[in-house]
Sequence to fold (313 residues):
Amino acid sequence: MYPPIEPYQTGTLKVSDIHTLYYEISGNKEGTPVVFLHGGPGGGVGESDRRFFNPEKYKIILYDQRGAGKSTPSACLEENTTWDLVKDTEKLREELQVEKWHVFGGSWGSTLSLAYAQSHPDRVKSLTLRGIFTLRKSELAFFYQNGASHLFPEAWEEYVAPIPESERHDMVLAYHAQLNAVDDETRLKAAKAWSKWEMATSKLYVDPQHIAEADKDDFANAFARIENHYFINSGFMRDGQLLDKQEIDKIRHIPCIVVQGRYDVVCPATTAHALKKVWPELTLNIIPDAGHSSREPGTTKKLVEATDSFADL
Fold:
């Protein structure tokens, strides 16, 4: 990754009567623009996210999606859908007077990147995607119901603990009730358990420091509530929509590099494989010793190589 840098501009953008987004810009003011679409949904951006891009060549634009990070109101589910976020990304492009930009996104960020590109293909110079996630029912079932639990049984026990046994046949639905409970204690306990499950399974080598992120009240509340809200609503799209040939045809001309951890259990490689089958023109890099996180060495290396390769487009 490139050395740490600070933004030279920060700002807010009011995108609805309810929501105001936080954004920041770093790198080269005259560089080629790139927008970073964070994961979750609800994850927010961090300082290290700037470091995937050569600051001498890129104008690096990061923003917190609705309800996430420094955007307000925190954890708000109202007027918060995939298509609201697609519109927000386009509004930010217009606000910053960017004609076309590179788009970078991992996990949920790959979902939003595909949805945005398919909605505005004429505004995207390239796509750098990691841990492909398309919100199909089968993907959600693998991670939240019956799949990853076979690989991380200890973490799974902690994840199911807040849910009565009679409700465990649909964990996303059961968590939905608790994450929207009236009392703060129930809601926060559920939020931390939901978040901890993802943090505990995100890396090939379990990282206690990463898991500890789930103990932060504000982060867990936004991350869990927004994720669950999107998942209970199937991402506000039809099952498999982002992989439909007619949708891929809209973006087939855009250079795309995908970086996928072989042992990613959050967003398993089968989805990246499905995307490659319908879009053979993209470049798929399978990292043999990586899980889900963008911070694993092999994944980080390939992501930086990808952004370097697009820097002069």
Q: What stands out?
A: Strands lie at 9-14, 20-27, 32-37, 58-63, 101-106, 124-130, 256-261, 283-287. DSSP finds eleven helices and eight strands in the chain. Residues 138-236 form one domain. The first strand starts at residue 9 and ends at 14.
